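Changelog note: in this version the structure field was regenerated for every chain. One regenerated record is shown below for reference.
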Amino acid sequence: MSFLTKLFGQSQDDRAVARPLWHRTVEIAREKEWYRDCGVADTVAGRFDMITLILSIVMIRMERDAELVEPSVRLTELFVEDMDGQLRESGVGDVVVGKRMGQLMSVLGGRLGAYREGLTNADEAIMADAVSRNVTLHEGSDPLLVARRARAFAAGLDLVPAYRVLDAEIGK
């Protein structure tokens, strides 16, 4: 053990358990099919919308397994860390970042509720309505395309055992 480690204590990354899942969530949200085939706008807003959609689906899946509840908290922390970094990188000042992060967390919470309702209801129009309110689409794009693909992803994710979800073996 080095002198500095002894002096300052060993810093353990509590979020490491969820980091691969966070990276996989972002990869899925960036898949070209969402943008090319489903009409999601390939803009900062559209990419954020897709990250919150996929993250919501993953978190909804995680909340059903007791062993995934704590890692879902870490996954949320990684979302916050990443969005904080993105805001700072885009030039948002320190004074404003906290307020913007609060707004982003509120957005995520609202979308979690909307997508939870859309995924648990047999009527796919409810998910399409949630998508139309929460995903930036190209003009004339049908939100039902995103809704159907999101529901298919969620259905596949429901079949993945908890340990594979945590290992980021999803959406393959």
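Spot check on this record: Residues 16-166 form one domain. The chain has a mean pLDDT of 88.
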